[in-house]
Amino acid sequence: MSLTRDFFMMLSQNKVLNSGAKRWGLKLGAQSVVAGTNIKEMVESVKELNKVGISVTIDNLGEFVFEKAEATEATNQILGVINAIHENKLDAHISLKPTQLGLDIEYGFCLENLREIVAKAYEYNIFINFDMEDYGHLQPSFDIIDELSKEYDNIGTVIQAYFYQSEELLQKYENYRLRIVKGAYKEPENLAYQDKNDIDRNFIKLIEYHLMNGKFTSIATHDHHIIDHVKKFAKKNNIPQEKFEFQMLYGFRKDLQLKLAKEGYNFCTYVPFGNDWYGYFMRRLAERPQNLNLVAKQMFTK
Ligand code: FAD
C-alpha cells in the first residue's frame, strides 16, 4: 500500500476535518464528484443522466455518525430523497451506509431507522442498496439485511473482493441483487488481499460466479480491463443484458459511462450529494492520486 494512499485514508478518517468540512460547502474540487449539497441540485443532476439513458443510485452522503439526533436527521433526509425519486419519476434507487443511520450508536436503533427507510421505498417500488463499509461493520450490516429481508425484497448489498471471505459471502447472498467492487477501505493482511493482482483476480472470479448463478450483478469499477473482460464473458456465456449493469461513480470517466450506455449496456451512476462529502472525497483521492489533478485545477480556477 503506498504512502499517498495511506495519507489520504488517514485524512478520510479524521473526525475534526470530517465535521469541519460540513460547514465549508463543496471545496477542494469535490464539486466535480459530488452532485451538490441539497436535494434540488441532486435531482437536476439525476435528470441529466436519466436523459442520456443512465440510471442512478443516490447516496445522501454521511457515515460514522455517533449522535442519535444526527442519525435521525439522516433517516429523514433519505426519506426525503425517496419522495423526490417518486415525485420526479426518476430512474433511480438509493445507496446508504448503516453507520450513517446509527450502527455505531445502537444496533436496534439503526435497525429501526433502516426499517422505516426500506418500508417507505418498498411502498414506491424503490430498491435500497446497503453499501459495505469497513470490516468492523460487515457482520452487523449483514445481520440487518437478514432481518429486513424477512419482510422486504427491495434490498441488495455489496461484496468487496479484497476480503478472503468474499466468495463465501457471495454464495450466501447469491439470491440478492449484488454490487461487486474491489473494496475501498484499508484492511489488514489477515483479512484482505493487499496486492492489486490478487484483488483483481478475485474480483473477476466473483463477478463471473454471480453472472452465472446470481440474481442481478452490478459491476462497479472504473477499470476498463475488468469491463472489457466482463463484456467478453457475458457474450461468450449468453448472459442476458437484463441480468447485469455497469456502475461508476459520478464525475469519473464520464466518456466511458456514456459509451457503455450507448452500446446498450445497462449503466448506473452512483450519485453522492450533501454536506458530508469529506470522507467520501478523501477515499477517492486515496484510490487514485491522479484525482489530485482535480484538486489542483479547482484550487487555481475557483
Ligand atoms: P482501480 O483499481 O482504482 O483502477 C484500476 C485501473 O482502472 C487503473 O489502473 C486505471 O487504468 C483505470 N482507472 C481507474 N480509475 C480511472 C479514472 N478515473 N480514469 C481513467 N482510468 C481509470 N467500495 C466499498 O468498499 N464499498 C462500497 O459499497 C463501494 N461502492 C462502490 C460503488 C461504485 C459505483 C463504485 C464505482 C465503487 C464503489 N466502491 C465501494 C469503491 C471500490 O471498492 C473501489 O475502491 C474503487 O471503485 C476503485 O477501484 P476500481 O475498480 O474503480 O479501479
By secondary-structure content and strand pairing, the structural class works out as alpha/beta
Any idea of the CATH topology? Answer: TIM Barrel
Q: How many helical elements?
A: 12
Integer-rounded radius of gyration: 18 Å
Percentage of residues in helical conformation = 40-55%
Query: In the residues, how many domains can be counted?
Result: 1
Pathway: Amino-acid degradation; L-proline degradation into L-glutamate; L-glutamate from L-proline: step 1/2
Cofactor: FAD
Organism: Cytobacillus depressus
Keywords: FAD, Flavoprotein, Nucleotide-binding, Oxidoreductase, Proline metabolism
Considering the chains and any ligands shown, give keywords for the structure:
12 helices; alpha/beta; binds flavin-adenine dinucleotide; single chain; 302 residues
